[in-house]
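Forwarding the complex inputs:
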Amino acid sequence: MNQLPTDPEKKLAATLVVRRRINATQEKLFAAWTQPQLLVRWWGPQGVACPAAEIDLRVGGTYRIANRFPDGTLVWIAGVFEVIEPPHRLIYTWKLESQNAALERVTVCFEAHGAATEIIVTHERIADDAARTSHERGWNGCLDSLLEYAQQPGS
Amino acid sequence: MSLQAQAPRRSSEDRLDAILHALSDRTRRAMLKRLASGPASVGELARPIAMTRVAVSKHLRVLENARLVSRTIDGRVHRCALRSEPLQEVERWLAGYRAFWTEKLEALARFAEEVDREDG
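Prediction (whole assembly, two chains):
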């Protein structure tokens, strides 16, 4: 739409927050998230296989995660690490490699709660063309599940 | 889960563009919030945000274009009301992200808790 602002900062910074408490230590979960040989063992559930992952874990380093869909399509998610604070926090950019679009950003926090860890994933800047295209590729689960509008900033 | 069952892709894309653009401004979000508690006249919408009626009208046009707000004219009074359907459209769109990350975290939990049991 031609009336969309061109300045990316003026676009809607739609933000999604997903939390999950897991019975494992921060260190173990941070490793599972950042070591490719561990990541491939859990990243591709529900029919989407993860045949490969490359992770250069340093600020400015890149990562690539392969996602193979049931129809054989291979989609790489890729980005650059912006913040690395083991075992507490990771911030990295996020995009589908095949697309030439604005970067989204993912923050993963690992909060210790006794022997368990709460993981908080914040996915920002998802209101852009890249997001919508990835949405259409159908890599998400069920579209009909509900999402609270309260997740939106400013609401 | 496919979008194919829904409206033709182009129009659905255009609608999302219009809705997300409308939601990308805090003044317009404030106006929507006000309308969530009931219909209001243009003057009533302008008052809490210290804006001229002209500026408010501009924002209203964006909201109307996204079909987030409907306007009825009663004599000289324009009454605005919130329409929830476009918000549901955004919810459906964002739900994809939620499903994606929820699924990933579930998988990580299964993996990590299993590794824990193996270790123990």
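Chain A touches chain B through 50 residues (CB under 8 Å).
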